[in-house]
C-alpha cells in the first residue's frame, strides 16, 4: 500500500538524517578555529603561565604593531598585520583579537569581585552605556573569569570580552574579540568555544 511504502521510505531515511545532522550543524559554523594557551596568546606578557585555551581563527597569527602599548598582544591575519604596521590602523573590517593586562579593572580575592566591572557603580552605568549586555562569571581551574557581551548604541559595534584573574596581582588579563564585519555569528562562535573550556558559569547578579 502507499502508506506502507511511505513508512518504509521514512525508516530508510531516518538513520541517514541522524548521521547528517551533526555534520550540517558543524557546517553552519562561519569559521575554522584553533586554540592557543592564554600564555601563548599574550606572547609571554603574563605574570604566571595560564593554560586557558583561547580560540582564535585559523588564519590569525600573533602580530606586533609599532604603536601598540606595552603589554598588549594582537592576533590577526598576517596581511592585516602588515597593513596595520604600515598605517597604524587596526583592521576593524577584517577583525582581530587582543589581550592586555587591565589597569581599569581589578580582581579582589576577598570579595570575589572584579572591581570596575561587577560592582554596583559599574553595573548601574552599564545600563545606560550598553544595549543587549550579558555578563557571566565562570572559572578556569582556580582562576575566576568574567565574560561579557554587549552592543554599543549608535555605532552598533559588538563587544565580546573577558577578564581572567591571574592570582598574582589584582590586575586581570583582558581579552577582546573584534569580529570581522561586526559579525554576531562569528563573535558568538568564538565565545561559545571559549566558554566550553570554562566551568561553573552563572549570570552576574544585578547585571542589566
In short:
The protein is α+β, with helices and mostly antiparallel strands and 208 residues long.
Structural account:
There is one protein chain. The protein has five helices and twelve strands. The chain is α+β, with helices and mostly antiparallel strands and 208 residues long. The strands form three sheets. Strands 3-4-5-11-10-9-8-12 form an eight-stranded antiparallel β-sheet, sandwiched between helices. Strand 8 and strand 9 form a beta hairpin. The chain is globular and about 45 Å long.
Features:
8-stranded antiparallel β-sheet; 12 strands; globular; 30% helix; 208 residues; alpha+beta; disordered N terminus; two-stranded antiparallel ribbon; 5 helices
Mean pLDDT: 84
For the sheet with most strands, the description reads: 8 strands, antiparallel
**Assembly context of the chains:** single chain
Helical content, roughly? 25-40%
Query: What is the general shape?
Result: globular
Q: Give helix and strand order, one letter per element, not per position.
A: HEHEEEHEEEHEEEEHE
Q: What proportion of the residues form beta strands (DSSP E)?
A: 25-35%
Uncertain segments of ≥5 residues (pLDDT<50)? Answer: 2-27
- Spatial arrangement of strands, main beta sheet: 3-4-5-11-10-9-8-12
Alpha carbon gyration radius: 21 Å
Amino acid at each position: 500500500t502507499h502508506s506502507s511504502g511511505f513508512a518504509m521510505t521514512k525508516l530508510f531515511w531516518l538513520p541517514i538524517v541522524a548521521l547528517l545532522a551533526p555534520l550540517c550543524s558543524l557546517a553552519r559554523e562561519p569559521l575554522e578555529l584553533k586554540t592557543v594557551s592564554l600564555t601563548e596568546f599574550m606572547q609571554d606578557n603574563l605574570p604566571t603561565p595560564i593554560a586557558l585555551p583561547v580560540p582564535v581563527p585559523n588564519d590569525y597569527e600573533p602580530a606586533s604593531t609599532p604603536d601598540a602599548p606595552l603589554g598588549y598582544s594582537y592576533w590577526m591575519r598576517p596581511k592585516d598585520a602588515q597593513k596595520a604596521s604600515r598605517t597604524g590602523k587596526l583592521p576593524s573590517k577584517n577583525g582581530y583579537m587582543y589581550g592586555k593586562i587591565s589597569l581599569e579593572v581589578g580582581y579582589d580575592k576577598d570579595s570575589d569581585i572584579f572591581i570596575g566591572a561587577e560592582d554596583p557603580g559599574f553595573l548601574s552605568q552599564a545600563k545606560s552605556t550598553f544595549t543587549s549586555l550579558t555578563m557571566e562569571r565562570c572559572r578556569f581551574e582556580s582562576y575566576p573569569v568574567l565574560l561579557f557581551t554587549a552592543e554599543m548604541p549608535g555605532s552598533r559595534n559588538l563587544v565580546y570580552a573577558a577578564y581572567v584573574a591571574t592570582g598574582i596581582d589584582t590586575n586581570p588579563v583582558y581579552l577582546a574579540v573584534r569580529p570581522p564585519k561586526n559579525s554576531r555569528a562569528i563573535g558568538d562562535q568564538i565565545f561559545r568555544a571559549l566558554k566550553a573550556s570554562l566551568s561553573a558559569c552563572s549570570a552576574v547578579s544585578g547585571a542589566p
